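Troubleshooting log. The previous run stalled partway through. Resubmitting the same four chains, unchanged.
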Amino acid sequence: MSQPKFKQLERAYGFDEVSLVPGDVTINPDQTDISFNLRNLTFSIPILAAAMDAVVDPSFAVKFNKLGGLAVLNLEGIQTRYENADEIMECIVQTPENKITSLLQKIYAEPIKENLISERIRAIKQAGAICAVSVTPQNAKTLALVAKDAGIDLLVAQSTVTTTRHISKSYRGLILSELCQTMSLPVIVGNCCSYSAALELMRTGIDGILVGVGPGAACTTREVLGVGVPQITATIECAAARETYFQESGKYVAVITDGGIHTGGDLCKAFAAGADAVMIGSPLAQAEGAPGRGYHWGMSHSHSALPRGTRVKVGTIASLEQILFGPSSVTNGTQNLAGALRTSMGVCGARNIKEMHKVKMIIAPAIKTEGKYFQITQHVP
Amino acid sequence: MSQPKFKQLERAYGFDEVSLVPGDVTINPDQTDISFNLRNLTFSIPILAAAMDAVVDPSFAVKFNKLGGLAVLNLEGIQTRYENADEIMECIVQTPENKITSLLQKIYAEPIKENLISERIRAIKQAGAICAVSVTPQNAKTLALVAKDAGIDLLVAQSTVTTTRHISKSYRGLILSELCQTMSLPVIVGNCCSYSAALELMRTGIDGILVGVGPGAACTTREVLGVGVPQITATIECAAARETYFQESGKYVAVITDGGIHTGGDLCKAFAAGADAVMIGSPLAQAEGAPGRGYHWGMSHSHSALPRGTRVKVGTIASLEQILFGPSSVTNGTQNLAGALRTSMGVCGARNIKEMHKVKMIIAPAIKTEGKYFQITQHVP
Amino acid sequence: MSQPKFKQLERAYGFDEVSLVPGDVTINPDQTDISFNLRNLTFSIPILAAAMDAVVDPSFAVKFNKLGGLAVLNLEGIQTRYENADEIMECIVQTPENKITSLLQKIYAEPIKENLISERIRAIKQAGAICAVSVTPQNAKTLALVAKDAGIDLLVAQSTVTTTRHISKSYRGLILSELCQTMSLPVIVGNCCSYSAALELMRTGIDGILVGVGPGAACTTREVLGVGVPQITATIECAAARETYFQESGKYVAVITDGGIHTGGDLCKAFAAGADAVMIGSPLAQAEGAPGRGYHWGMSHSHSALPRGTRVKVGTIASLEQILFGPSSVTNGTQNLAGALRTSMGVCGARNIKEMHKVKMIIAPAIKTEGKYFQITQHVP
Amino acid sequence: MSQPKFKQLERAYGFDEVSLVPGDVTINPDQTDISFNLRNLTFSIPILAAAMDAVVDPSFAVKFNKLGGLAVLNLEGIQTRYENADEIMECIVQTPENKITSLLQKIYAEPIKENLISERIRAIKQAGAICAVSVTPQNAKTLALVAKDAGIDLLVAQSTVTTTRHISKSYRGLILSELCQTMSLPVIVGNCCSYSAALELMRTGIDGILVGVGPGAACTTREVLGVGVPQITATIECAAARETYFQESGKYVAVITDGGIHTGGDLCKAFAAGADAVMIGSPLAQAEGAPGRGYHWGMSHSHSALPRGTRVKVGTIASLEQILFGPSSVTNGTQNLAGALRTSMGVCGARNIKEMHKVKMIIAPAIKTEGKYFQITQHVP
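Second attempt completed without errors. Output:
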């Protein structure tokens, strides 16, 4: 009789389940280097602003890019569907909860206009900022060339899960190697969450990879499809692919953790797991002047955390400068993200991001205990 | 001195503790095949409607079967005890909470009528639908023949735990191999949750096995008897038995995960754990036109999740078509179950259910974190 | 340089973390044997009523023992300190919350009277019941002889932790082997929770061992002293000691799991972990006619779950017969404990307690999931 | 192709996840020795009062030290910045929640005065108590000598993470070996949480090490920086370093667990993990006469649990004598800490702290279960 074969399961970990261990050396935060390189481009902070309408519009992109990060404008959102994008945004914010789903569905049914693509890109370039835009793989071939002509510096091709091999009857899958050659610009592709899929993507010639599929428990990808890999494990997997690919090719592809980062602590852990940069959305939607005006919503039906039709109130908590560089008026880790990274690296003895990759990480679930004995409250002014 | 021998315990996993990993290939959902075969029968969706009074009555059975699934009518419920079943159902729904326990006990004390068995089955057959019915092992010998004569296509013999060997003084245990030969119809037996018990059942000649004993924490089997195996592990065990039995006999017995499935995510995970089909109850009791009219209750004292006397309000959330095929108006995974399965298979690169069995599954507990920073609410129209 | 040596920790498990797996054979509940033997004594149900004032008084002892179990009367409680014990009990129940601590401390400061010991024991014996009493190890030498003279059938020597070797300046530790010889009655000793300590105790000639030190999280032993072993692991350890001792001596010492059992599920798991019997308190304090009148409180400052001074309202939920034998009017496992054990054994294919010891147990944490989709409520009449 | 290399993670444990196992021998609490030695100094209880303004002022230090413990006065707090420290404390306590952050920031901006350092130290010495003070590594060279001249007995050099090698541009790192030689007094350094970092610190000639970086989940180090090691694992690591260093040098460096201890249970577990003493803050801030008057707040922006600007109300629960030695009026483990340690050691069979290091510890998460069946409430007079 044959031996029974049971399906094997391995444990995966998310931000809340791990923690970093201080080093044997400590470094003053001002002695750490947190810059991020992507081919010819250098950013003073390793943070990308997510390509979502409530996070990035042209003026936010300019401001964010000038502060040292990289904002990505969604080429399939309100900015490229509506001339009067600001009015549309205002309308979304003013609409009551019980009418928002149908409103959002209607708004995103409007066709994308090529002239608006060019217009939005030029607005960013004319302000002297680096311009990055995102497209879905289905629309990449048409929209990417329009965007290139308009002068973008970097292209992001992003969907919930992107692979090099897509089986479809209705359209021929995007050939990433062709896209990279056609664009002759840095190309970031995602999302992805396993070693093997990441390695295949890297071999197409891309410059960066977005990591994160259904990372959180609140994520609808996980609830609806049962699919998702917690971000620490996903980042560790893709970082291992980066090392393998670097050894076989000599090319270093940036690993960018995208999704599930809410605090400085989450962000620091992403780097220790192997990220070269992170992409964040809701922490930036909370900035004064963010296009979402204190709200946040999804870009597509399949968006993992916020499917189209879901609008959440994130609130406006501080200026963008404060969120990125402090000073922090709260202790919950939502402000001074760059400062938190520098301090964490200092405490862990990492002089730069590559040394941060080697910091010891432990499994240490965040169990609430303090509140049992007395309540820690905090006044948020 | 002898070495001490300590009882060994192995870890088992449930739906909420695991997650699926996207594949290296992705497939357009419309290119996936989710059909389910059981001997000579083919179903376009691999979903069985549970043999419970609040879920399946003849008209629901017809509708569900025509939509591609397989509804199982309980031959020991209200439909076969009362001519005026609809009035009884209405009465259950109208009765206040404090009188429901005694009412249900009284209602189910009424004897089963053979003429009603025939009548209900013929109603389904005359509407042109496939007809499946369930009996308990104790009553199988008498009721199954009546049902066969009335024209059923498939028999389910189901109790909380069914084994090939039952020790009893009062009645001679059901011999499953005899039942299969007598019926000469597809026979599904359950419930079961371990490799060894499943293998023994398969060897009797059955066509399908129901997997699930005390799967959930809210399940009274677990609370009252201490007995229960979480569904992912139970399905993995029974799927391994299916492979062993297939190798020794060449016959492929369908593994049907029954119980604990509430969302598309749960359903997708059941298939990735090895299920060929799933049996669901409460998600269908929430359909417009479900016999329970927004309520759900147990069929017997020993029913694992809902012992007789317990009635729960599940609400009516959408049409049956929407629950099975969408469009979904919510993002919590309770609508568009077939669509969720196709999309999940697409993301995981599985062209059919057998490929879905091979998708990588990880242990990734669903820890609530999102809500810490801002509240995600959703308007349900 | 020497290799660093880190303290090693092993995982221990409690009731809520495990579950039982149905067997390959099933048995009708009425075919199971749940009797419990202790030397010359046989009990038809393997349940001991805890030696606590709110659980056992002479009349409860008589009733419980006649129903087939073994009630243990505390010889250092209200019954042996007060002639008018009933009045004292009534007074405890009537006292408001803010005066209960000082009242209880005052009540238990009253000296124990030898004449009351005799009186209470004779009351039980004259009613034709088996009489078991408990003493603390400190008082064993004096009180046990009085009790023996009064006609007890069984002695329990119990403290939070009892070992064969106790280091003390103020009194010479109790020599258990001497106690066993002096009494020439069945002797049960406890509590204990590890293999080595249990084995040492067994070697003194005792007949039963009480298992359980700080079993629950709410247990103050755990909170105050950091000490405690969850009951599944504790029972597995002591059951292994029983087997070792049986092999070396041929004597079978009963393992009695004491503490943390609240439901039929907990009780069934204790037997599957290796218990020959269980001792329960709060489930019985909830019976009509229990001396605590719906309240429960601790016997000593060091009582693990209920230190003296803590009074909890447990409520009166059903008759003692219903709690032990059903019918159950609820589905939360607090009624029909003997029936639950028989049914669980039937489902697991165990004909008697010794076969129940061999039932497969898995680690399957009780995660609440059901409530996410609809609320399961239940009317308690 | 090279084999992929995935980052490895080890599991770490905190107080709430472990428990102690009773021994095979038990000891009367009054036979246990809980004294703590640090070079030439002996303390009758192994407890240090944390160097925080709400915990230790000169009069509290005198009282605490006379009760047998070791209170550490913060040389960079209110006592050394303000002549009228009591008025400042009163002002902090009286200030409403919405003005406390800015007030605390302003108060701690006042310069430290050398004459006040001398004055506070002399007040303690003149009362006949042992005097210990703390400084940060940055200020150690200047402040430590002033303190030494004023007559201190012991110096603590403490920051969130202290290592032997600190990389900084702005100031030359503190050379600990020089500090130890200059002071020729017992020197305690911290904080630290890993084997390697602890071993390096021990090799500089220090006498004690403070263990604890971001120990709790509520700890802001963990939330903001992603850094932290749960205290059981941190203590086990540092205790292993102590043994390694003892074998290589013959010198025994005291391991002092600092942070996250709220109950007697936590405290007992710290010793079983390898601590020679513990440092506690909030349990002492709850004492009558504590300088914080029922409040507690952080000393610096980087303080792990309470960053400057956060004030919490801890309440005043009992006298200092009761908190240390009982009698306890509650059962939640917050009173009679020394008594709890003695009782725990007795139950575990440890005659002294070094034997307590060898007590068996298990992983046994504190799952709340009791409350499911009835509510345990407690009247706090």
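Takeaways: The first helix of chain A runs from residue 58 to 66. Chain A has one domain: 15-364.
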